[in-house]
Design brief:
Number of strands: 10
Structural class: alpha+beta
Strand content: 25-35%
Order of helices and strands: HEEEEEEEEEE
Shape: elongated
Strand order of the largest sheet: 5-6-7-8
Distance between the termini: 74 Å
Largest sheet: 4 strands, antiparallel
Number of helices: 1
Helix content: 10-25%
Oligomer: single chain
């Protein structure tokens, strides 16, 4: 049995390290602040390394949006669409619902008709000349697709159009710019 050591200057600490003198059990050192910080840094490093592939995929996808090619799709013949009428169609995929509105003799707009709030379908109200989301009473400006009332904050994604030989074609989707 060790004899108690006399303090050198009459004060604590003993000869042993001041930092560890209160550790009495085996492996208790693993639970101190330094051990905790080592564990947290190791976990953060592991998390950062494990997310690198997803970050690379996201960066590749975001950089490729500007060059994304869309197919050309005939929406309707001009003669079949009166001023103020709207036509629903699917673009760019078969499950992406969209809406074409004829605003004037030579003025057309088209938007994806999923509300930017909670993806409810947006409808054309010919009488009020506005795009309406009935779920939360959101309203969009038909000329710009910008929200004018209700909870939506972002505009409807615009579909690029071309008019050729008496028909209206969808040619792409305009990227949303915040």
């Amino acid at each position: 049995m060790d004899q108690p050591k006399e303090p050198r200057n009459g004060k604590v600490p003993f000869e042993e390290d001041n930092y560890t003198h209160n550790i009495r059990k085996n492996n208790e050192r693993l639970l101190d602040r330094r051990g905790f910080m080592k564990t947290m840094v190791g976990a953060a490093g592991l998390f950062a390394v494990s997310t690198l592939p997803w970050g690379a995929i996201a960066a590749q996808e975001l950089n490729g949006l500007k060059q994304k090619a869309y197919s050309k799709l005939k929406i309707a013949d001009i003669s079949a669409l009166q001023v103020g009428d709207a036509v629903e169609f699917a673009y760019p995929g078969e499950h992406d619902s969209a809406l074409l509105v004829r605003l004037g003799e030579n003025s057309y707009v088209a938007y994806q008709n999923a509300c930017t709030h909670l993806k409810c379908p947006v409808f054309w109200s010919k009488e009020k000349a506005e795009l309406v989301c009935p779920c939360h009473h959101g309203l969009f400006d038909v000329k710009t697709g910008a929200p004018v009332a209700g909870p939506p904050r972002r505009p409807l994604p615009e579909i690029l159009l071309s008019v050729e030989k008496g028909s209206i074609y969808a040619t792409g989707v305009k990227r949303y710019e915040a």
